[in-house]
Design brief:
With about 300 residues, this protein is an alpha+beta fold. The chain has two domains: about 160 residues, DD-peptidase/beta-lactamase superfamily (Beta-lactamase, 3-Layer(aba) Sandwich); about 130 residues, DD-peptidase/beta-lactamase superfamily (Beta-lactamase), CATH 3.40.710. The strands form two sheets. The chain has a five-stranded antiparallel β-sheet with strand order 2-1-8-7-6, with helices on both faces. A hairpin with a 4-residue loop joins strand 6 and strand 7.
Length: about 300
């Protein structure tokens, strides 16, 4: 496995087309596109890594996996009243689909759906309490207390997140947001600003492996459902392509990270800041395709 990770990292470092960093969030625009890290947390407890796997980065939309887990634990199937479970086929920040579907987001991983999930777990809590719960969940999952929110990134998102504000106000207009949009969005922007290294991220995904000895954060039934959502919706309008090329559930973020689960085998994290046209890490996607090919890991046999 270490040899595979070393080869993947060598290939990534030699790549000339690395995609483009997310310039629409000012704090992410300055991230070095040459960075690349990959980590694998195996079911037997080993953690292997290569490249910049211990450098913290902004996990952005990967945080939606953890808020979904918390929401399902708290609300169960009542969550699905306000958010759907179908692939969107649209960009992650599209407002067009939300208008057609009367303020009910298509799934919990597009921005509108994630805002609705954050709103659901915020109910009756102050944003700092909800964010404290989120950090405790992630730190427990990773077995690492050195995981934090980057306030500068959160402020940067808050200053420029006009489209997310529009999505929230549109859902509020349709009665699908319980809290004031400003309150929910404040929590959402800070949620997306959680920073982790690839090693920490791989460790935090072990609860989705359904392997002996892995952290038991949610029920096995909900692990299956979260993995299903990652497979169908985790890469926005490129989710089908990722499933075809990699064959494993995964969730991307515009910070360049991808969390991938090989059920019963491993939790994998890869980070390369340059994005493709769909907002997913370009080299990260290629690295995961390489890893799946070399290991033979796939949910499809």
């Amino acid at each position: 496995m270490q040899a595979i990770l070393d080869r993947i990292t060598e290939t990534a470092r030699a790549a000339t087309d690395r995609g483009k960093v997310a310039t629409y969030i000012p704090e992410l625009a300055g991230v070095d596109p040459q960075r690349f890290g990959i980590a694998v947390a195996l079911a037997d407890g080993q953690v292997l890594h290569a490249g910049d796997a211990q450098v913290p980065f902004s996990i952005q939309s990967i945080s939606k996996v953890f808020t979904l887990a918390i929401a399902l634990g708290r609300l169960g199937d009542r969550l699905w009243k306000g958010v759907g479970r179908e692939p969107s086929g649209q960009a992650f920040n599209s407002i067009l689909q939300l208008e057609h579907e009367h303020g009910r987001p298509r799934n919990p991983f597009i921005n509108a759906g994630a805002i609705a999930v954050t709103d659901a777990i915020l109910a009756g809590h102050k944003p700092r309490e909800m964010l404290g719960e989120l950090l405790r969940f992630i730190r427990t999952a990773a077995g690492d207390d050195d995981i934090h929110i980057n306030d500068a990134v959160a402020r940067s998102e808050q200053a420029t997140g006009h489209r997310n504000m529009a999505l929230a106000h549109f859902m509020r207009a349709h009665g699908n947001l319980a809290n004031a949009p400003e309150l929910t969005l404040g929590a959402y922007f800070h949620q997306c600003a959680v920073e982790m290294s690839a090693v920490q991220l791989a460790l935090s995904g072990r609860f989705l492996m359904a392997a002996p000895g892995a952290p038991r954060m949610v029920s096995p039934a909900r692990v299956r459902r979260i993995n299903a959502m990652m497979m169908m919706c985790g890469h926005y309008d490129a989710s089908g392509d990722f499933a075809y090329r990699v064959g494993l559930p995964g969730k991307s973020g515009v910070g360049g990270g991808i969390l991938v689960v090989a059920p019963g085998r491993a939790s994998i994290a890869v980070w390369s800041p340059g994005l493709n046209a769909q907002g997913n890490s370009k080299l990260g996607t290629e690295a995961m395709e390489h890893l799946a090919r070399e290991t033979g890991w796939s949910v499809f046999g």
